[in-house]
């Protein structure tokens, strides 16, 4: 050993003037290391293994300031320049100490993401993070899919006052499907919360009719104009009966 120098939280040790390694400070004391010391191969290997373990553990604990799964940590450990044996030893240690807990991680993820992601999406994301099927079955047995879907429907209805009820239903349905909610859960939520729709369809129909009339009355007349307006209003989500009643009312007003 030709050099020994303090470097922040480590000690920098040079061997034979061409190989330098960072060593955990406690190992310098444990192995009574000093400049010009000769280490037996067995002692050196023991010292190196212990240093690899401690430095990798330090790395793992630093990363675990952010909550992660055992797979995510394992993937990071595989990038470290230490043996697979050391990587596994560190992983076992942090799991035994509950510094990594896949069940707690999955429960926390569900709590934080329940309004951003539906059950199918959450399951997919958690599987990608290495959460086991057993843990997924545990946490999703308690997942209130119907309640959350209804809350999301109520929330979305508030921002859809300028859409017809049919448009709002279709938009919300597609939104919840994209989040990973089951069709049956979505239909149930829309049925239960349909009265929370806050749009004024009569006013929406009047405005849409007047806009269509301005757009097409210079090009079409009579029956063709009426059919074109019916077509456009139906495409906007108004029911056939509502359109028919409104147009009949307009005819009566024009007499």
Q: Key features?
A:
255 residues, mainly alpha, Arc Repressor Mutant, subunit A, 4 domains, 3-stranded antiparallel sheet, 13 helices, 7% strand, elongated
How many strand elements? 3
CATH overall fold name of the largest domain:
Arc Repressor Mutant, subunit A
Counting structural domains, the number is 4
- Overall structural class, as computed from helix and strand content, comes to mainly alpha
**Helix proportion of residues, in percent?**
55-70%
Q: Characterize the overall form.
A: elongated
Architecture per CATH nomenclature, i.e. the level-2 architecture of the largest domain = Orthogonal Bundle
Strand content: 5-15%
H/E topology pattern: EEEHHHHHHHHHHHHH
Tell me which oligomeric state these chains represent.
single chain
How are the strands of the largest sheet arranged? 1-2-3
Distance between the termini: 108 Å
Helical stretch tally:
13
Largest sheet: 3 strands, antiparallel
Radius of gyration: 34 Å
Give the CATH level 1 class of the largest domain: Mainly Alpha
Determine the CATH superfamily of the largest domain. Answer: Winged helix-like DNA-binding domain superfamily/Winged helix DNA-binding domain
> Whole-number average pLDDT?
87
Can you describe this structure in just a few lines?
The protein has helices at residues 25-30, 41-63, 70-77, 84-96, 102-113, 119-128, 133-140, 145-158, 165-179, 183-192, 201-216, 222-235, 240-254; strands at residues 3-7, 10-15, 19-24. With 255 residues, the protein is mainly alpha-helical.
Q: What does it look like?
A:
By secondary structure, this protein is mainly alpha-helical. It folds into four domains: 3-96, Orthogonal Bundle (Arc Repressor Mutant, subunit A); 102-140, no CATH class; 145-196; 201-254. It has helices spanning 25-30, 41-63, 70-77, 84-96, 102-113, 119-128, 133-140, 145-158, 165-179, 183-192, 201-216, 222-235, 240-254, and strands spanning 3-7, 10-15, 19-24. The chain has a three-stranded antiparallel sheet. The longest helix has 23 residues, at 41-63. The chain is elongated, with a radius of gyration of 34 Å. The mean pLDDT is 87.
């Amino acid at each position: 050993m030709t050099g020994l120098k303090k470097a922040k939280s480590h000690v920098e040790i040079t061997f034979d003037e061409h190989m330098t390694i960072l060593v955990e400070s406690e190992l310098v004391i444990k192995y009574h290391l000093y400049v010009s010391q000769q280490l037996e191969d067995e002692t050196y290997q023991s010292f190196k293994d212990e240093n690899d373990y401690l430095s990798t553990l330090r790395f793992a604990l630093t990363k675990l300031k952010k909550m992660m799964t055992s797979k995510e940590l394992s993937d990071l450990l595989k990038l470290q320049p230490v043996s697979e044996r050391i990587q596994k030893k560190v992983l076992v240690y942090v799991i035994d100490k509950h510094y990594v807990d896949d069940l707690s991680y999955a429960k926390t993820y569900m709590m934080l993401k329940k309004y951003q992601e539906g059950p199918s999406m959450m399951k997919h994301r958690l599987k990608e993070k290495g959460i086991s099927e057993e843990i997924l079955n545990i946490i999703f047995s308690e997942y209130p899919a119907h309640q959350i879907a209804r809350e999301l429907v109520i929330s979305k209805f508030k921002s859809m006052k300028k859409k017809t009820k049919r448009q709002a239903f279709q938009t919300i349905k597609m939104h919840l499907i994209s989040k990973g909610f089951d069709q049956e859960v979505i239909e149930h939520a829309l049925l239960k919360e349909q009265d929370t729709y806050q749009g004024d369809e009569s006013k929406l129909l009047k405005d849409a009719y007047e806009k269509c009339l301005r757009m097409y009355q210079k090009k079409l007349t009579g029956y063709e104009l009426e059919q074109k307006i019916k077509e456009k209003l139906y495409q906007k989500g108004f029911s056939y009966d509502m359109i028919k009643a409104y147009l009949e009312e307009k005819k009566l007003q024009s007499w």
